[in-house]
Amino acid sequence: MIGIEDELLGWKDFPKGLKVLLLDEDSNSAAEMRSRLEKMDYIVYSFCNECEALTAISSKSEGFHVAIVEVSAGNSDGVLQFLESAKDLPTIMTSNIHSLSTMMKCIALGAVEFLQKPLSDDKLKNIWQHVVHKAFSARKDVSRSLEPVKESLLSMLQLQKAKGEADDKNSNGTEPLTAVAESNTEQSSGCDKYPAPSTPQLKQGVRSVDNGDCQYHTIFSTDQDSGEHDGDTKSVETTYNNSLAENTVQTSPPGQQGEIILKEENGSSPHQKMEADIATSSQSNECPDNSIGHSAEPSKASSPHSSSGTKTNKKKMKVDWTPELHKKFVQAVEQLGIDQAIPSRILELMKVEGLTRHNIASHLQKYRMHRRQILPKEVERRWPHPQPRDSVQRSYYPHKPIMTYPPYHSNHVVPAGQLYPAWVPPASYPNGLQVWGSPYYPGWQPAETWHWKPHPALHADTWGSPVVSPSFGSYPPYPQNAGVYRPYGMYNRYSMLEKSFDLHPAEEVIDKVVKEAITKPWLPLPLGLKPPPTEGVLEELSRQGISTTPPQINGSCCRR
DNA sequence: TTAGGAATAT
DNA sequence: CATATTCCTA
């Protein structure tokens, strides 16, 4: 609809409407300050003692955007107390005194800035920067009042980006989808409309946002069509995107990241459709979990003042399973293991906002179908049937193909040493075929019939290709198959291990690894790896008092 | 009632 | 086609 335009209007006279708490004992200077601020369209609430101010803050919860506090020789105590009490409010100190220590104290106690007193209009006007900064740097709870600010800014940035700047996304030369993000709506809103805010500093603000951990990165369709009006929750509203995703498509960075592009289901005019591309935060990188999680439901924010409102744009979106997204998907499936890989869990693991269980179910369906197409061949190759099959397709294992594997462990307790039963050089397998892939998950390599069309350049991301954990560098030397068959499950297993060993040693991870190992004993290990992890795991287990006797495994693989 | 998964629709 | 949606089952 008109959301964006609204927002632009809202921004045109930024920082109009920002509420400034002014704390100054000196009524004269307070009055002066007030009038200056008001001239700049700030809304000023002035107080002459900190108790009053604090009361106002607590009663008028989240009502202020920024505070300006005058600190004088005599009131430093009160001021400092104020600072402590109002940590959530970006507070700017102003003062006539030139005392480094005072300054230091203030800053140390959380003041965002200390301004010496003859205040230029410039400086005064720019106090909004702290509001914006806070809006973006706040990790946990972005206070309600900041949210609109943040959102407005973000959508504006988004617009700017879509508009002028050459998107660096197509560094690879192929990114037709996202590149199209321009729409009539935006253009109609006029070029002068969104105003790089009057101060050059905003640029800076923008930069820092770009380099920040998370970036709001979403484009919404603004046009509405008459046809549909079902308000259900399929839409995606906000997402954070770690900026890495922006410029690196080809060289998929180690950190997992995905990006889904949701296309509006607009049958009539395919070119007008807008897309929201969503990038996901990687589960293991900087983006604090909660910021992502929470950002998922921002729509409740209702600003007391002019700006914004999160328009809930409910549209049926079509998920574009980009390689990145698929990669995540595959990773999730791998982590879960075949029999645990159900939509809801995958969804959970992928941590991609906007994806629904249905989306995943659908994709999973396809995924499995493709598997089945590939699998029989693999198994056939590995255990050539005595009588040649007339058709390879004939043999396919709707269920439990595992049974065709040698019963390493049938239904007994898995001895420790057999946690990775496939610890066998490939050569020892019939035909010397490499066996990196599990029977369940042979490298779902790009069969001729399956190319990743939308993003042809990304070979590494074709179906089933696991993400190579950088720590393992190269693949085991299998020239003929190198790059074709990729070790499947184990990569994750190990990269997971390693990762979490760095972070916080063990426990759940080990748990998980063991569980997975038990669940999927047939998964071989890449040759290059050394066994220690197993022992390490066991050690850790016993250290924790967990019996090395794993739960029965029979249920998981031989049933159903 | 939910969710998974196949079948079917778009 | 690739996804979404529907339908059936557990």
Automatic annotation (TrEMBL):
Annotated localization: Nucleus
Pfam families: Myb_DNA-binding (PF00249), Response_reg (PF00072)
Low complexity: bias regions: 294-308
Gene3D superfamilies on file: 3.40.50.2300, Homeodomain-like (1.10.10.60)
Compositionally biased tracts (Polar residues): 171-190, 279-288
Residue intervals of the Response regulatory domain: 19-132
Keywords: DNA-binding, Nucleus, Transcription, Transcription regulation
Composition bias, Basic and acidic residues: 226-235, 266-276
InterPro entries recorded: CheY-like_superfamily (IPR011006), GLK1/2-like (IPR044825), Homeodomain-like_sf (IPR009057), Myb_dom (IPR017930), Myb_dom_plants (IPR006447), SANT/Myb (IPR001005), Sig_transdc_resp-reg_receiver (IPR001789)
Region (Disordered): 163-208, 217-236, 266-318
Location of the HTH myb-type domain: 313-372
Top-level lineage group: Eukaryota
PANTHER family: TRANSCRIPTION ACTIVATOR GLK1 (PTHR31312), TWO-COMPONENT RESPONSE REGULATOR-LIKE APRR2 (PTHR31312:SF4)
Designated name of the protein: Two-component response
UniProt organism field: Datura stramonium
